Write a sequence for this structure.
């Protein structure tokens, strides 16, 4: 939350992100500012062991987005990837509902080996990003295992069981983040937020994408205490999620699937809510958070760049106004 | 080594095998007798950890051969496989000289997971064979780690470093089998040999394919003591190996690259040597081992079946003669 103006116009922009909306937003941001100015703090609550490999879906999406490798068609995995190993796994009688592409496998094999050799998830993430010539910083929210658990009438599911296997068609009673209380933010995360020029909560699911990040002790405080302005891009447009189960999951937390609900998720730390122009006028300005409207639905590369540019513009204007007031 | 005649014509045929020659021979055998009558005892001295996965090249070749999946073009790996993961591993800066195909990866992922879950290599091998609807028995020579080490002037190499990475172009001073002395034969191996109708040493490299099998304590004795006739198909034709470095490696063991050298590798346990017709008359009959000649070079499926049929015919005739004498 901003207290004073940030004079330097070339500082780092920290993005808290998870899911496909977050990856698209980061793709836009990397078009409009130098990638070396971007730090992504990424949800790892969706991580899973699959076929014996450590898979970090949100770290992968951001990594592929920044390496120009992200599949446009699917929004996850590697562009133009094949699924021959998956087909062979199916023949082997192995569950194959979570799909790993052949090129994608290289990332999981590499990560799993680095972790087995004693590296932290931060180090493994950095090494993979370095090999793929990524200039932005990518940091997991924590090096500890924090697992998003989805409570259903028939028992708990991992996030991927709920999201991919059940296609989020099962009723949800609640969400918890196993291991969160004992976890620490990954090295550098709190510092990046403290020293940022701006912090942006990507248009990601507030419950299961940004939620796990904020559940890591110290992270919410870092966002409250930073001198940088904190903005969130709403993932809710016209009372529904742009994609995925955000609306349903928000309701399980007692939050309306609306701008008010998004605002309430972040009320203690937000300066600025950036909402879709289709919702113009419906923002809860009363809560002391400024609301700005633009097109937030990202279909093309131009949409992504335009949204990033608009968000940076709103942030700049907000700083000027804050300094003047 | 045979002592008395085996009356039952429907017993099991045990094949000791490794490498591409062995896989081809087994493909032939499965054409001419019911696969459920075949037991393969397979070299695991070439096994390696690669990309964090437990790879058993000779078990894989036999498995793919019996599942009708073995690449005809390459002689290893899966027919018509792609190498997209390998390309991505290369981009990741990972050594990629040992090639794993995308479909092939499913086997290594499955084996690695089964071993991590506490299964033995025998159990993992059986489970994979079962999933691939293989009726023949495939047994590793041992569940313990036995590693073929190749001694060169610049130090020791693993077999795959020597064979694949260096393309067997480095001078060799010797070969040793690390872990062999403490290893036991895998469950069922000694029993299969004892109860076999016939035992065949496939046309595999006597030093690094059959050699590691015979180095497992108890295996050589099992072959000496079995009542079944023991035949070897020579991998040497016209003083050279049909493929690979067998000739060079035999020389490092003080063995000539000839029928005499092959015979000397197996002299204590062999009843019958089956050699190529190009070498007709050059067999060392004097050592008390009968030598028979046929075409041993397997180019087509018909060649493979013809060789298997010829070997079984020689074995049958040998039994009749042994019983009559």
């Amino acid at each position: 939350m901003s207290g004073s103006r940030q004079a330097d116009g070339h500082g780092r922009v920290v993005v808290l992100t998870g899911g496909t909306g977050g990856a698209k937003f980061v793709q836009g941001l990397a078009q409009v500012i130098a990638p070396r100015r971007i730090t992504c703090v990424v949800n790892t609550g969706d991580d899973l062991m699959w076929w014996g490999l450590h898979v970090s879906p949100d770290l992968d999406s951001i990594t592929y987005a920044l390496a120009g490798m992200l599949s446009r068609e699917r929004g996850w995995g590697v562009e133009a990837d094949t699924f021959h190993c998956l087909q062979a796994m199916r023949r082997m009688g192995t569950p194959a509902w979570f799909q790993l592409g052949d090129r994608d496998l290289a990332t999981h094999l590499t990560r799993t080996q680095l972790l087995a050799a004693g590296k932290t998830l931060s180090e493994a993430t950095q090494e993979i990003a370095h090999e793929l010539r990524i200039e932005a910083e990518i940091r997991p929210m924590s090096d500890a295992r924090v697992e998003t658990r989805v409570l259903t009438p028939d028992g708990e599911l991992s996030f991927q069981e709920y999201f991919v296997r059940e296609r989020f068609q099962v009723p949800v009673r609640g969400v918890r983040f196993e291991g969160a209380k004992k976890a620490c933010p990954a090295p550098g995360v709190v510092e990046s937020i403290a020293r940022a020029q701006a912090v942006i909560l990507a248009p990601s699911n507030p419950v299961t994408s940004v939620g796990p990040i904020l559940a890591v002790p110290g992270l919410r405080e870092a966002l409250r205490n930073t001198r940088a302005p904190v903005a969130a891009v709403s993932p809710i447009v016209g009372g529904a999620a742009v994609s995925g189960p955000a609306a349903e999951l928000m309701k399980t937390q007692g939050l309306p699937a609306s701008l008010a609900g998004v605002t309430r998720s972040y009320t203690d730390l937000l300066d600025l809510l950036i909402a879709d122009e289709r919702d113009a006028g419906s923002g809860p300005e009363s809560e002391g958070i400024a609301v700005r409207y633009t097109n937030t639905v990202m279909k093309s590369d131009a949409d992504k760049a335009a949204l990033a540019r608009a968000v940076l513009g709103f942030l700049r204007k907000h700083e000027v106004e804050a300094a003047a007031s």
